[in-house]
What we know:
3 copies of one chain form a homotrimer.
Chain A: H1 3-9, H2 11-16, E1 25-30, H3 35-50, E2 54-59, H4 79-87, H5 105-116, H6 122-131, E3 135-139, H7 140-146, E4 159-161, H8 163-170, E5 175-178
Parallel strand pairs in A: 1-2, 1-5, 2-3, 3-4
Helix pairs in contact in A: 3-6
Amino acid sequence: MSTVLTAKLDPQATLVGLAEKKPERVTLVVLSGDMDRVMAALIIATGAAAMGMRVTMFFTFWGLNALRRTGSSSRASDWLRRMFGVLNKGGADRLPLSRFHFWGLGTRMMKRVMQQHRMPDVPELMEVAKDLGVTFIACTTTLGLMGITKDTLVEGVDQLAGVSTYLAEAKDAQVNLFI
Amino acid sequence: MSTVLTAKLDPQATLVGLAEKKPERVTLVVLSGDMDRVMAALIIATGAAAMGMRVTMFFTFWGLNALRRTGSSSRASDWLRRMFGVLNKGGADRLPLSRFHFWGLGTRMMKRVMQQHRMPDVPELMEVAKDLGVTFIACTTTLGLMGITKDTLVEGVDQLAGVSTYLAEAKDAQVNLFI
Amino acid sequence: MSTVLTAKLDPQATLVGLAEKKPERVTLVVLSGDMDRVMAALIIATGAAAMGMRVTMFFTFWGLNALRRTGSSSRASDWLRRMFGVLNKGGADRLPLSRFHFWGLGTRMMKRVMQQHRMPDVPELMEVAKDLGVTFIACTTTLGLMGITKDTLVEGVDQLAGVSTYLAEAKDAQVNLFI
């Protein structure tokens, strides 16, 4: 529901005036670690933030790879999570396409096309998002499950949190997407 | 929020009566080009439109393939986007299943089952959606990135637009999904 | 929109008091049958239900596998759906990871890590969800398409329904996600 409509409904808001209007909110759960889906999430996030909306992105499961330093590995003490960490590499610049990845070849092709068209890639979009005040939250459950420590995440992660933090934000937001 | 509830909240609406009620809105971002996900999007879209809701579908990335003419290829001038265009074929009747596609065999099996049960396929659902007034928007960023020109899209695309058009619609909608 | 805000907007609600507040609602369409996505859906569902929200989960397409008894096969009379049923096995404990499934090896690794960290798996999360009053709806269209009969579903499925039931719930919900 738009705040404009809220203002119409609330007699008090009309008295107090437009200055009282709360910014509209957007939340994005980013579970996918695919380059195309993370890009779409960031394009929506930066677009909304540029329009004055309050945007929160919750990175969970494979999506958390976008918040991990490139080349960082799992620091888990057990071999099982370590082995999984070898497969599941972090780094916003290393996300594969969901289609036509072809062991990296297709993804590299797409990146070159983006470069030629001066389209920002995932690391650049993340910087723009941070500059526009988008909140980045890393899912604590995933961190534990994958043996990822806070110091291996990139700078700019605002909070480590769980599902209740997400829901508290989402229930007051106008746009909630699961990506 | 339902318009019914809005009517209760707004004293003016009660005076003016039910004729003034705005239709409820649904927006769907269709990033996936998988047959099953596009079908789900169209079933929700046509269902909502049949219930009198205002429905907008934003086709982006692989989802845009549903809006491309079957057999149309990328008209990009550079070999890189052309090569990508060879892989990424358009056509609403050519979308693969997200599971058990098996180089076309699984998808063809599923299509035959659907035919036997007189279930509409993706091209038929798109026609129903257009008849019910669902708005189709093609993402301009994807068009540029993939070297797809407007004349290779199917008829019935209402608008070429970007993220701000999407957000302007989504912030006032009751149901927003990312597919 | 939060009910707290609704209470502020509605003069009647203020008179009647907080006891009249309707619970906030969450709907989740679960199309994916991937372990990680179904787990995320259930974590959001149980989290929301624990916070007092009314949660409805609509299982459709591959997501329906989570509601099928382990080892149950398609009872379709035609060989085509039967063959598809052999590929598309049901069972909440059999869902594959969307990444690194590796013919079951990667998924088994992840399950063992979860066990070591005493994290509930999909069948356990489903039980918690049922205990917390989450509503499970199985998509009738998928049942027909895949030749799945009601008696091969697990206990705890509240309803078999279609898209209009989903939309009626979603249009009044604060959080609607497509997973």
